[in-house]
Amino acid sequence: MTPAFGAALRTPWLWLAAIVVASFPWWLSSYHLGIAILALLYVSLALAWNIVGGMAGQISLAHSVFIGMGAVLATALNLRLGINLWLGLLLCAVGAAILGVFLALLASRFRLAHLSFALITLAFAEIGELVVTGSDFLGGASGLYYPKAASGLMQFNFGSSTGYLFAALLLALICLFVNAAILASPLGYYLRALRDNENAAQAIGIPILRNRAIAMAISAALSSVVGTLYARYLGFVDPTQLASPTLVIEIVLIATIGGLGTPWGPLVAAAVLVPAGELLRGKFGGVLPGLHYFLYGVLIIVVVLTSPEGLVPRLASLLQPARRKAGGTS
């Protein structure tokens, strides 16, 4: 275990936050508990995307395809063919990883610039949504419903909101530790080197395709798993929600506001912005629809102008002199 990864595991406030979240069912209403579950799912999605978008510096907009594979395809395999959802989760995660490697190969083969890669992946996302809405097997534009009779952990059903909260919390912690492990490993150093200066990294012998393919595969697989849990929690697979490029754009905005390349930025941003957006939507949705997207846009402008590195890294840099001073006087 590397020192940086060990430090992440030993972060006291992280485990305190996890304990507080685990206590939510005993003092939150069902409405607020649903918001907490949604926030944890977005934490996982933002952390999964951060492996590619933050560490590797590739703005991938194809993650809605990976999420859709876990949400839509796994559900269709379960409902249409009777394949157990746990097995469907595994199959779709592997399929998403393979597709992620293909996209990395495509970017490496044609040496796509960042903007070109973003546009190519956006095209994949649009194609993915069209495939889902045009396929009867995948539910089409009407989506897919889980039957209420499908219950039990063997059917990937965690029962009440409390069960889904614990499942979402566990998945968020897994995504966080995967981020921390990658950052502390040689893969993390290689990805950041490729992000900062691809030509210089290649000149010193860092393989471009292998490292980016590994990052994309891990990111895609995690996104697919989150998609499966997201769909099972909702009980209804809406392709305009779970297979739409709008979802991944929202994830990119959240991760960018928090700070790319570090696990804490996407985690904190998703944990704060998603509940705030849902509460605003519940309070003002009938009067000002889309208000939370407007606020995301305003925050993006403020962050780009004042803290291009993101809010969490900016806050950490501001607190660093105080920490040094406290350490020197102790």
List the helices and strands and how they pair.
Elements: H1 3-9, H2 12-22, H3 30-55, H4 63-81, H5 85-109, H6 114-133, E1 144-145, H7 161-183, H8 186-196, H9 198-203, H10 208-234, E2 236-237, H11 239-242, H12 245-258, H13 264-284, H14 291-306, H15 311-329
Antiparallel strand pairs: 1-2
Describe, in plain words, how this protein is organized in 3D.
The protein has 330 residues and is mainly α. The protein has one domain. The chain has helices at residues 3-9, 12-22, 30-55, 63-81, 85-109, 114-133, 161-183, 186-196, 198-203, 208-234, 239-242, 245-258, 264-284, 291-306, 311-329; strands at residues 144-145, 236-237. The chain has a two-stranded antiparallel sheet with strand order 1-2.
Key terms for this structure?
330 residues, mainly alpha, 2 strands
Taken in chain order, the helices and strands follow as: HHHHHHEHHHHEHHHHH
Query: Roughly what fraction of the amino acids lie in strands?
Result: under 5%
Structural class: mainly alpha
* Rg calculated over all Cα atoms: 20 Å
What is the mean predicted local confidence, pLDDT?
A: 87
Distance between the termini: 29 Å
Global morphology: globular
What helical percentage do the residues reach?
over 70%
Q: Which residues sit in consecutive blocks of at least 5 with pLDDT less than 50?
A: none
Number of strands: 2
State the major sheet. 2 strands, antiparallel
Number of domains as seen in the coordinates: 1
